[in-house]
Amino acid sequence: MVYDGIKESLLEGDHQAGERLSVEQIAQAHGVSKQPVMDALRRLSIDGLVEIIPQVGVEVARYAPEEIDDFFELFASVESTAAGLAASRRTGAQLRELDTVGARIEALTHADDPAERSHGYRVANREYHGVIHTMAHSRIIVDYAARLWDLSDFLINTGPSDLPLHSALEQRHADHEAVREALHERDPDAAARHMKQHILDTVGIIRSERTGTA
C-alpha cells in the first residue's frame, strides 16, 4: 500500500521534520496516480506524521521541544502500565520470546557499524516492546501502544541525528535487562518503574545527540 510505504519511509527517518514532500515524486516511486498518494497523506496527517498546508503543499510534521517532552511523558505512562500488567500476566513462552529478542539487542551492542546499530536497534527495540504489550493480554494496550510507537519512531528518526540512539545502545540494553528481570520475577512495580525511566531517558539521549555530547 502507498500509505504503508510512505509511513515506513517517515519512521525510518528518510525525511527530516519540515521537509516538503512531492506528491508527484511519491506517485512515480510507487507507480500510481496522485489520488492514492493524497489519500495516504491525509491518513498520515491524521496520524500526526505530515501536515497538509492549503495552497502550499505537504510537509513532514514538526513538533516543538515542549511537545516532544509532553509526548514522551504520555508514552512513558502507557509503556510503564503495559510493563506492570505484563509482569503479572506473562506466560513462560512469552518470556522466552522476550529473551530471544533481548539477545539480539545485546548482539547489536558489539556491532561497530553505527548504521547497523541504529537501524538494528529500531527494529529489535520495537519488537522487544511489542512482546511486552502482548504479555499484558489487553487489546487496548496493544492497539494504543502501536499508534504511540509510530509517533515515537517518527520523533526520534526525523530529528537532527542521522543515526539516532546508536551512541546509547549499551544503556538502552541495560534498561531492557532491568525490565526483563522484573518480568521474570513477576514484579509489577519494578517493571513499571524501570520502563518509565527507560522511556523518559529517550528525550535526554535525543538532545545529547543533537548537540554532539552523546
Kindly describe this structure.
Helix 5 packs antiparallel against helix 8 (169-184). The N and C termini lie far apart (37 Å). The chain folds into two domains: 2-60, Arc Repressor Mutant, subunit A (Orthogonal Bundle), CATH 1.10.10; 65-211, Four Helix Bundle (Hemerythrin (Met), subunit A) (Up-down Bundle), CATH 1.20.120.530. It has a three-stranded antiparallel β-sheet. The longest helix has 25 residues, at 65-89. Helix content is 72%, strand content 5%. Strand 2 (50-53) and strand 3 form a beta hairpin. The chain is mostly helical and 214 residues long.
Q: What's the arrangement of secondary structure elements?
A:
Layout lengths: L1 H10 L8 E2 L1 H8 L3 H14 L2 E4 L3 E4 L4 H25 L2 H17 L5 H22 L3 H19 L11 H16 L3 H24 L3
Helix pairs in contact: 1-3, 2-3, 4-6, 4-7, 4-8, 4-9, 5-6, 5-8, 6-7, 8-9
Count of domains: 2
Could you give the count of β-strands? 3
- Overall structural class, as computed from helix and strand content, comes to mainly alpha
Task: Give the full name of the CATH homologous superfamily of the largest domain.
Answer: GntR ligand-binding domain-like
Helix content: over 70%
Main sheet summary? 3 strands, antiparallel
